[in-house]
Amino acid sequence: MVDRLANSEANTRRISIVENCFGAAGQPLTIPGRVLIGEGVLTKLCRKKPKARQFFLFNDILVYGNIVIQKKKYNKQHIIPLENVTIDSIQDEGDLRNGWLIKTPTKSFAVYAATATEKSEWMNHINKCVSDLLSKSGKTPSNEHAAVWVPDSEATVCMRCQKAKFTPVNRRHHCRKCGFVVCGPCSEKRFLLPSQSSKPVRICDFCYDLLSTGEMTACQSARSDSYSQSPKSSLNDASDEEDDEDSSD
């Protein structure tokens, strides 16, 4: 069915509409063979709080952006190649339900659908697209993924030293390797993680020590279940605030 739609006028028109919604600041999305599979609003668990984001699933990429005017205008476009994506379901807890992790080498995060049926449809379609891409290319699934950042609300003290309390002066930082919320003194070092940046990025002392000795896998965070814990904030906030991908911390 995807192959049949690839060069159809209706598909070309739908993709053009998505391009226009992102405006001149967005990347061109129309290329031969690309098909728009589906779209919808998902709640993305950002660093500060959950935020509504518009997502578009194509047969080769996943695109999302901030909602400025629903169905008419979006900004801060992000494009994720599906070949690099793996997804994992998240258990329901509190207000955040019907969620799963989207994991890539450069960035990983949690999203939540409005219903269990919607979640199932998104996950099935994403998995089908990834499977088809890997089958055609002969590549193997990516086994390296960026850590999912622990939301600020989950840490009142540094998750490494367990002593430093966070205040307006003593700010929270995130280790780019494990995703933990850490204090400044526990994350003064930088390390080159080529999949995430061309420049050395902030990591905590614990991960730095392991990376420096070559024990890279030991500092991977196993905190997938923690992202089903609900920060006490609205899930319908669609304000055009800076997302965590724009944060330097």
Number of strands: 11
Q: Choose one word for the global shape.
A: globular
What is the helical fraction, as a range of percent?
10-25%
Q: H/E order of the elements?
A: HHEEEEEEEHEEEEH
Classify the beta-strand content into a percent band: 15-25%
What structural class should be given to the helix and strand makeup?
A: alpha+beta
Low-confidence parts lasting 5 or more residues at pLDDT below 50?
A: 218-249
Q: Tell me the CATH superfamily of the largest domain.
A: Pleckstrin-homology domain (PH domain)/Phosphotyrosine-binding domain (PTB)
Mean pLDDT: 86
CATH architecture of the largest domain: Roll
Discrete helix count: 4
Protein name: Pleckstrin homology domain-containing family F member 2
InterPro entries: PH-like_dom_sf (IPR011993), PH_domain (IPR001849), PH_domain-containing_F (IPR051765), PH_Phafin (IPR037871), PLEKHF2_FYVE (IPR047966), Znf_FYVE (IPR000306), Znf_FYVE-rel (IPR017455), Znf_FYVE_PHD (IPR011011)
GO molecular function, one term: phosphatidylinositol binding
Keywords: Endoplasmic reticulum, Endosome, Membrane, Metal-binding, Protein transport, Transport, Zinc, Zinc-finger
